[in-house]
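Many introductory courses stop at the sequence. We go one step further.
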Amino acid sequence: MSATDTQSPSAPQRLNEIEGPPPRTSAPEQTPGPPAGSIEGDPESPLARLTPAQIEQLGREFDAIHDEVFAELGDRDSRYIRSTIKLHRQLVLAARAMLLGSRNKPLWLGGTAALSVAKILENMEIGHNVMHGQWDWMNDPDINSQSWDWDTASPADAWRHSHNYEHHTFTNIRGKDRDLGYEIMRIDPHQKWHPVYLAQPFYNLLLMGFFEWGVAVHDINFDAIQSGEKSKAQVIKELKAIGVKARRQIVKDYVAFPALSALLSPRGSLKSSRRSFKSTLAANFTANIVRNMWAYSIIFCGHFPDQTYTFSQAEVANETRGGWYVRQLLGSANIDGSPLFHLMAGNLSFQVEHHLYPDMPSSRYAEIAPRVRDICRRYGLPYNTGPLSKQLGTVHRTILRLAFPGGKVRPKPGPYGAR
């Protein structure tokens, strides 16, 4: 199978409610002076240092990368996602088999570890990316953004709206991108301080451990409910969808599989069955916590370390296609790591490339990264990357500091490749 045998999306098409970059038009003249909503100490946006002609040319260069990759998608790419899904299912099968003997400590540890890895792989590299439409070009009804449902508490439709559409369209625009702090945390000094933020270091830990549940309710959008933008009927519909998905996840991990372990308990006594039930339930709970903490860490490192910029709505009022690309560059950060690390991160360790091309198969991000860096070098733009420890450390430092009044914008990196 080659790309010509499939229905490959052509630029600037974006799937799953992603508006993507604006149409290919010339950039308007920029208005000099500090942008509205700026605060003391705000660094100059690298976008302001580019001429309209440079922005337009940059947009064409990024378009070309997208078009070239999609023109050659084929067997190699489809084998990748199918083999990844197969690996996930094998891990789940091995984990569930070991956890039938979960009263045995080595089997509990092995089963819990395998289930944790399986849940991370399904959540990050498979579910997230399939639902982005990265594999829709295959025309496989089983690996499709509109039919896939992942092993997490968030309903697929709600996630596609809050993430694919809202976040990837309005990336880091204050007042538009509700992923900035997930509406509950102050992670940017431009955000007005409120006493409730004093508690954010504590509920940040809760969000880390139960991240899937925070994501599940994120699309409810309580601000829209208060303003009357979202009707009561719509809220009820969304809550029912969350309830259905939550019930399915709870029954699967905390009732059905623990009960199966209890029924197959070798000694057959009630006490033995109870021990098997509790140990399997504990293993499933642990695997979910591990997956949630990993997903939280990768996602927060890709969006909230010191290196990233946020934008006022006035700054992007007349945004062109090239400007959209630059905003994605400035609002995202990568994480350095090995190929195995990138796989377990769902290739969201290439968050810059993902935000530039959210519909591109994740397995291609490592290939195009050198070309993205070259564009950054030639146009004097930063390419934000760093080790996991550094990125995560700056995220938690920001959450702790901005729990209190005040706060300044942290220094930003200079142009990529500059001495």
